[in-house]
Design goal:
Elements (H helix, E strand, L loop, with lengths): L5 E4 L2 E4 L10 H4 L3 E9 L2 E2 L2 H15 L10 H11 L5 E8 L16 E8 L11 E8 L14 H12 L4 E6 L2 E5 L3 E6 L2 E4 L10 H12 L4 E3 L4 H5 L3 E6 L3 E8 L2 E2 L6 H17 L7
Parallel strand pairs: 7-8, 7-14, 11-12
Antiparallel strand pairs: 1-2, 1-6, 3-4, 3-5, 5-6, 8-9, 10-11, 10-13, 13-14, 14-15
Length: 289
């Protein structure tokens, strides 16, 4: 029988069955919470600093207090990875506003809730082929602060379910015909060798992997234009791909059941390889791993 996983909740390491939230936790009652997901490769976190910087920005934008153990998150992460013996994993970090009676006012001064849990991930293989998936266009019905990584993911889940209902793996969301992003990844389109992606404004999450991919693309000599494209422009692109903490660089082969481009993804392939090399470098992964 496998050992029960260990989590971190408000200063304590607990078995998952021991951890519990108050019924009046505002993260449960109002979805007042923000989160991050950090990938662990060979026991080392990847890009923890930008994840924590974004988490702090999310806290400020939602006026949620920084928990006392915020600066210990890297240490807590490393300890959880060790305690759970999960050198290949993802760490979920969540901060919610805290406990108070169910009211939309008079909640100042609350102590926020810090929760971390580790989930196993497939072993990282730098030489693995680039993953692919299919997508469907779905209306983006989220709020106007999509740059905040909030736990309120019902619109994302709904979009993913609508895509699944028509046989697609994920949704590419759009606002009145203007593409924003996928449900849990940033979206890119390639046309004539130029790479396009939605500007980093309030309508998309400012992805950590997105920033890396843009940097790598420029290092490889490609022009990257941060410009909002229409669904028609995405559908007519030579290549479409997404980027994210768990998806890395993933090519989109079909949108709404129609092939993207001619079925080849030379630029996405190069970015997939460059990203894998970056992970190897930053996490000091042995080349023969």
């Amino acid at each position: 029988m496998s050992q029960e996983s260990i989590v971190f909740l408000n200063g304590e390491y607990l078995s998952k069955s021991e951890a519990s939230f108050p019924v009046e936790e505002r993260g449960l009652l109002f979805a007042e919470g923000v989160y991050e997901v950090v990938r662990i490769y060979a026991g080392k976190d990847y890009e923890m600093t930008p994840h924590l910087e974004r988490l702090e920005r999310s806290l400020k934008k939602t006026d949620i207090a920084k928990p006392a153990d915020f600066d210990r998150i890297p240490e807590i992460t490393a300890e959880l990875v060790k305690k759970n013996n999960l050198p290949e994993s993802t760490v979920y970090v969540q901060i919610t506003r805290g406990k108070s009676p169910r009211t939309q006012r008079d909640y100042n001064g609350l102590e926020s809730t810090l929760f971390l849990i580790v989930y196993p991930a497939a072993a990282f293989n730098p030489a693995a082929a680039m993953p692919t998936m299919t997508c469907a266009f779905v209306d983006d019905i989220r709020w106007e602060m999509c740059d905040v990584k909030t736990v309120m993911l019902m619109p994302n889940i709904s979009a993913g379910n609508k895509a699944a209902a028509v046989g697609a793996d994920d949704a590419i969301m759009h606002r009145n015909g203007t593409v924003t992003e996928a449900t849990a990844a940033n979206a890119f389109a390639v046309k004539g060798g130029e790479i396009f992606t939605h500007p980093a404004d309030n309508h998309i999450l400012h992805g950590i992997t997105r920033a890396t991919v843009i940097s790598l693309a420029k290092e490889l000599g490609y022009t990257v234009t941060e410009k909002a494209l229409t669904t028609e422009e995405f559908a007519a692109a030579d290549e479409v791909f997404v980027s994210g903490t768990t998806k890395h660089v993933t090519a989109i082969t079909k949108i709404d059941g129609k092939d993207v481009g001619n079925g080849s993804y030379p630029i996405a392939e190069k970015l997939h390889k460059a990203f894998a090399d970056r992970v190897v470098e930053l996490c000091e992964i042995a080349q023969n791993a």
